[in-house]
Amino acid sequence: MRHLRAWLQQGPLAALPPFALDPTGRPCHGPRNGRGPPRPRLRQVLDNQGNMQVAQEMERHKEGTAATRTPAAARPDRFGDALRALGRFCTKLAPALAAALDPTAYCETPVYNPDLCPNMIAAQAKLVYHLNKYYNEKCQARKAAIAKTIREVCKVVSDVLKEVEVQEPRFISSLNEMDNRYEGLEVISPTEFEVVLYLNQMGVFNFVDDGSLPGCAVLKLSDGRKRSMSLWVEFITASGYLSARKIRSRFQTLVAQAVDKCSYRDVVKMVADTSEVKLRIRDRYVVQITPAFKCTGIWPRSAAHWPLPHIPWPGPNRVAEVKAEGFNLLSKECHSLAGKQSSAESDAWVLQFAEAENRLQMGGCRKKCLSILKTLRDRHLELPGQPLNNYHMKTLVSYECEKHPRESDWDESCLGDRLNGILLQLISCLQCRRCPHYFLPNLDLFQGKPHSALENAAKQTWRLAREILTNPKSLEKL
């Protein structure tokens, strides 16, 4: 731990070993699987303590044998005495060797042995204490402020959607509050939100996901004779595809009309120069409303590799729950298709796994870790070019769950290690300019981000990680 602290305090950003990506684009777990360079160990048990103890034991042994050495004539069984002396030496040396050669010093398994590494345990406890304090003070305050904003924003959005429904009954508002949570609402940042508007009847379409459109899929009529049976018949192309672009265009027109008629028309207006449906509320908040279809009970082919066979997380029961939860198909611009002109590509729907990801990150300190990361991002990583958002943090938490599959790895006492691991992985992704989607690793979440913005974010994240690890008390000011 001392060496890592010194390395963090002295080394420049370039000294950080980059993290490799495996052939599928997923972050590597370290040298144990042969897929990339080792990542800095935050739990280095050895810390030279074992080597020092070995040297001390050897010195004591030399002094002891020098003081008790007898003449050769008085030693009738020199070979037997030598064996016994060697046995005594090995008995004394065993604890030191065990400390020096403990394999857990080089793996991800948490080691809690006060006799082995008291300084490390004290440092861990100190970091966890300050992280919990940070969570209780800063994160909870952030949550309360966002909850208040959400209630204010949802009043306006609900009123607009009611006006839309009056004009076009097929667009029924699904923004309902359940257990102090609005279904379909995602927090992008404290001032930016997305509301998913779930549409009805997708039954006459086939879900086509052949991997040719990263992060996207198309909906094609299962039978041309069923065209008239669809609730969305006028949005079906000549090729038989249900066009996400056409539905979004129609919805945008309806929302623009609703904004002029709703009771909040003095505080809400449409955001111009975009094909997305975005509202600006009180000149402070931006809400994107996205039409979508909810797909439950099926799983996309492009995510069929998940879960990875050699990783024990998540367990089979959780996998079944996640796949049953399904995914959403969103009518929104897909950055991976930018510049492509094919009609099928412009009519494609974006895959979203929000509920599945939420279910995966239940249990242990996962949610707390994500909340701390979001708060740090809001306060210190809101940078020009907007290189980072909350979804990047959520994605890296999922990868960290894979690297630390046991529930004991997500005990409250491991919070500091998990947070530092995610921050270091974030730096790696920023340096590599690639952050693969958790379920769709061929989709790069950094695509379209300016390289200068990613580089600036890497430097800022590096400073943040170094400050937290070398001086946990600094969290009081972060």
Automatic annotation (TrEMBL):
SMART domains documented for this protein: Mab-21 (SM01265)
The organism's place on the tree of life at top rank: Eukaryota
Organism from which the protein derives: Myotis brandtii (Brandt's bat)
Gene3D superfamilies noted in UniProt: 1.10.1410.40, 3.30.460.90
One Pfam family, short name: Mab-21_C
InterPro entries in alphabetical order: Mab-21-like_nuc_Trfase (IPR046903), Mab-21_HhH/H2TH-like (IPR046906), MAB21L/cGLR (IPR024810)
Entry protein name: Putative nucleotidyltransferase MAB21L1
Biological process according to GO: eye development
Compartments, record wording: Nucleus
Record text on subunit structure and interactions: Monomer. Homodecamer; composed of 2 back to back homopentamers. The protein may exist as monomer in solution and oiligomerizes upon ligand binding.
Coiled-coil regions listed: none
Record-annotated Mab-21-like nucleotidyltransferase domain positions: 181-360
Residue intervals of the Mab-21-like HhH/H2TH-like domain: 365-462
GO molecular function, a single term: nucleotidyltransferase activity
Region (Disordered): 15-41
Family statement drawn from the similarity comment of this UniProt entry: Belongs to the mab-21 family.
Principal subcellular localisation of the protein: nucleus
